[in-house]
Specification:
globular, mainly alpha
């Protein structure tokens, strides 16, 4: 199931590109520099989070293996890793004409940044999906909140990375955001697991 979820994250990733091209089509004035605007960053972040959720929905939601709340976080992270893998490969091919040194530098930066970004943003959405396990009547509301939170985190990372003239400062801010979110996700993971354990019925010997 982990492998299938990872591969689905790879397979559905081109849809995100289509959605981003659709945004540029609707905004011809931004076609020259679409990835320098806040609107594009926000749209791209939302599109990518939706696609990763779609990958998990296709593989997991109706599968009997999805039998614990914490699975939502695990499978969302897995889909995020699959999405990041193909994204990094495409970027690598795009930077090869710039030379091996430049391509390696970009790939190294993305190995740390992009992989953590997609894993952590997916984990945030996965947390709200896990919480819907306990609040069945609010499942749709929790899904929307999770998508919003994951999108805002994704957007903030991209904005920090590109909005500063000094790239080092942008890198420091974006890396700090990733570290803080990694600690938060670790805490949320434990909270979901503890809550599930507490909700299990006590069986007498």
């Amino acid at each position: 199931m982990i492998a299938r979820t990872f591969l689905m994250g790879v397979i559905v990733s081109p849809i995100a590109v289509i959605l981003q091209l659709f945004f540029i089509k609707l905004n011809p004035t931004q076609a020259a520099y679409p990835d320098s605007t806040a609107a594009f960053f926000l749209w791209a972040a939302l599109a990518e989070e939706l696609i990763k959720f779609f990958a998990v929905k296709l593989v997991i939601f109706n599968n009997p293996e999805f039998d614990e709340p914490v699975d939502a976080m695990i499978y969302m992270v897995t889909a995020g890793l699959g999405f990041a893998a193909i994204e990094n490969i495409l970027v690598m091919f795009r930077t090869i004409p710039d030379g091996a040194t430049a391509a390696l530098g970009v790939w190294t930066l993305r190995f740390v940044g992009a992989i953590l970004l997609h894993a952590l943003s997916s984990a945030i959405l996965g947390y709200f999906l896990a919480m819907s396990w306990f609040y069945q009547h609010h499942r749709r509301k929790l899904l929307y909140i999770g998508l919003a939170m994951a999108t805002l985190f994704h957007f903030a990372f991209n904005a920090f990375l590109s909005s500063f003239e000094n790239q080092l400062i942008g890198l420091i801010y974006s890396t700090s955001l990733l570290v803080a979110m990694a600690f938060l996700v670790a805490i949320l993971f434990d909270k979901v697991r503890e809550r599930h354990e507490a909700a299990k019925p006590v069986t007498s010997l």
